[in-house]
Amino acid sequence: MFSDTFNCVPATAGHKGALATGWRAARRTRISSQTDGNAETTGTWQIQYLYDAECPLRSSEVVALRRLDNNKGRISFVDISDEDYDPSMYGGITYADAMGPPAAILKSGEVVRSVEVYRKLYEAVGLGFVWAATKLPLVGPVVDWVFDVWCRNRLRLTGRPSLEEILQQKSKR
């Protein structure tokens, strides 16, 4: 699932520079919701993925999904950690809400959460079969439970501060 590496760039204007996470220090390009290319401006997207660009795993997933999308604009990537992120433009999903289980918005306006987000993302790029087993009656509940445990512990497991600390830091900016 989290199968790609970071796009390494020097810390210069427009880039956040080094991201120290406890288990990895990497330099990456911030992928901004405001500069997502033509997917948002032309409305060709099938799903808007609200992700935390400060999370090394979700950022890696975005890099992989962008590659799989092959510039077709089927996925609009929305960085919730961008200071210009406006919840009113994305189903009212606040930064704090989006920091829990992953969230995405379908073209119809329906909000999907948790494992269903990944099912929809991979369906959008033609690889729905990757997550198809998670729909099975015996497999689905187990995957949902494991994923919920992961989501509750994601920040700690990636060496990041608690959500409360992150929210305090954001309020000081």
UniProtKB/TrEMBL annotation:
It comes from the Eukaryota. One of its GO terms (molecular function) is protein-disulfide reductase activity. This is Thiol-disulfide oxidoreductase DCC.
